[in-house]
Write a structure and sequence with these properties.
With about 500 residues, the protein is of the alpha/beta class. The protein has helices at about 25-40, 90-105, 110-120, 125-135, 145-150, 155-165, 165-190, 210-215, 250-255, 260-270, 280-285, 310-320, 335-340, 360-365, 385-390, 400-415, 420-430, 440-445, 475-485; strands at about 5-10, 45, 195-200, 230, 240-245, 275-280, 285-290, 300-305, 325, 345-350, 370-375, 435-440. The protein has one domain (about 5-90, about 190-485): Alpha-Beta Barrel (TIM Barrel). It is built from 19 helices and twelve strands. The strands form two sheets. It has an eight-stranded parallel sheet. The chain has a four-stranded antiparallel sheet with strand order 5-4-7-8. Helix 1 (about 25-40) links the parallel strand 1 and strand 2 (about 45). It is globular. The mean pLDDT is about 95.
Length: about 500
């Protein structure tokens, strides 16, 4: 699918300003849409919006269909002592959960709520019961619940539904308010000619309603434990690879159903978003399979994925969709052939354009095709200013001489003295022939490594960045608008 020439921003809603110590879908999100419109930006890309679990990562959620209740705006909030520029997850979560439960307890379900419940019977009952059971079992992973609940014995689940009826109702109400507020945001975006782009992880968390309710779709043993898990081999980000902990799909079983679970997942995503980035696209062609008990990812093997079969099934059910393929890392000709077969634009990262490896060649702006989505950096990169001022350019495996050569090449290529490198990369991206350019908010604000969203392979200190309105000055907005107009975006 051809994307129009446009530019946008990468910002997760948790990074917005707000009174509860975390950004949400309320007034500050609508104000952000106004800023985007003033800047001439047409796309707001978000990270996955599911209810976060381990490590507060939006890529490890309790459901592939539910929304994160921490993003629900609760009116009547008062200023708190939470940091202005970071989410203190360990303090924010219990504080907002308490506020949310208080607000939900005062809500009397009406016909609109009942209609919402009826509309989402394909996932909401399992999700609400899963979360209620998890709460009743002190947050333990579902494989450690009492056996009847863990193995989904019908009689046991019927008994639990009665016992946990109040808790189940609260989880259903959370989802009603999340989707109501998100749809209001989407409507507001449409009136401003702004599209919302989502991010769909290829895998789901093992401790999720999806795996608990659809065990046949995943490679699990008879007790529900992972036989194998997902990850990536050693690469730019990690010398030992990345061991993600997600269960791998039973693609043979999914194929027998016409990939029904995946079709439902994609349909749900496009009810929320105008376009979707498919994370780790190369895993659909072939994926790195690691033993289920592995701690690091060196002991893995490449296994052939579903390939074109999956996307034929999705397009047969839903039509041609505006999908962006995250084709970073070890990309083979077969991966690119799969992407091109369905017309999914790939990604290029400007921070990667100046190194000596083979993929840097295709990240150079003079090699961009029009059907490309260009980023200064992604949520997994350091910020551009952090990348540029770092002695290792975010890669500790290289020598100081290699880093110096890369920096000098970047200066020569970009025709700059290195000052305001964030704006240099923004300008180069916007001036390129690529149809889509997306800029992390940290790069628009010129922020350093302390605001990095995620460092792959690290288990803490991630997903915390927030900005404040005083940082996003009228001068920055005007500068963006000028560049967007000059380069016809």
């Amino acid at each position: 699918m051809t994307f129009p020439r446009a530019a946008g921003v990468l910002l997760h809603p948790t990074s917005l300003p707000g009174t509860d110590g975390i950004g949400d879908l309320g007034p500050d999100a609508h104000r952000f849409l106004d800023v985007l419109a003033q800047s001439g930006l047409k796309i707001w890309q978000m990270l996955p919006l599911g209810p976060t679990g381990y490590g507060d990562s939006p890529y490890q959620c309790f459901s592939a269909f539910a929304g994160n209740p921490m993003l629900i705006h609760i009116p009547g909030g008062t200023p708190t002592n939470f940091p202005e520029h970071a989410v203190e997850w360990e303090h924010v979560l219990p504080y907002k959960r308490h506020r949310l439960r208080t607000a939900l307890a005062a809500y009397t379900p009406d016909e609109r709520f009942q209609a919402f419940v009826r509309e989402h019977t394909d996932w909401l009952p399992d999700y609400a019961l899963f979360m209620a059971l998890k709460e009743a079992h002190d947050g333990m992973e579902w494989t450690r619940w009492e056996p009847g609940a863990a193995r989904r014995d019908p009689a046991a689940l019927a008994s639990w539904r009665t016992t946990l009826a109040d808790s189940i109702g609260l989880y259903e109400r959370e989802q009603y308010f999340f989707f109501t507020q998100f749809q209001a945001l989407k409507t507001a975006a449409k009136t401003r000619d702004i599209e919302l782009m989502g991010d769909l992880p290829i895998y789901v968390a093992h401790d999720s309603a999806d795996v608990w309710a659809h065990r046949d779709c995943f490679m699990l043993d008879e007790n529900g434990h992972k036989l194998v898990q997902a990850g990536v081999p050693p690469d730019y980000f990690s010398a030992t690879g990345q061991c993600w902990g997600n269960p791998i799909y039973n693609w043979a079983a999914l194929k027998q159903t016409g990939y029904a679970w995946w079709v439902r997942r994609m349909r749900a995503a496009f009810q929320l978003f105008d376009s979707v980035r498919l994370d780790h696209f190369r895993g659909f062609e072939a994926y790195w399979e690691v033993p289920g008990d592995a701690v690091t990812a060196e002991r893995g093997t490449w296994v052939t994925g579903p390939g074109a079969d999956l996307f034929i099934a999705i397009e047969t059910a839903l039509g041609t969709l505006p999908i962006v393929a995250e084709n970073l890392g070890l990309i083979t000709p077969d991966v690119e052939a799969l992407r091109e077969q369905f017309g999914f634009p790939g990604m290029s990262i400007l921070q990667f354009a100046f190194g000596g490896d083979g993929q840097a060649h295709e990240f150079k702006p003079h090699n961009f095709p029009r059907e490309r989505v260009v980023y200064t950096g992604t949520h997994d990169n350091d910020t551009t200013m952090g990348w540029w001022t770092s002695t290792g350019l975010a890669d500790s495996t290289r020598t100081s001489d290699e880093v110096a050569r890369e920096k000098q090449y970047a200066l020569n290529y970009l025709g700059t003295d290195g000052a305001e490198m964030n704006w240099t990369l923004i300008r180069v991206g916007l001036a390129s022939v690529a149809n889509t350019v997306l800029i992390p908010m940290q790069d628009i604000l010129g922020l350093g490594s302390e605001t990095r969203m995620n460092k792959p392979g690290s288990q803490s200190g991630n997903w915390a960045f927030r900005f404040s309105w005083d940082q996003l000055t009228p001068g920055i907005t005007a500068r963006l608008r000028t560049m967007v107009d000059i380069y016809d975006r």
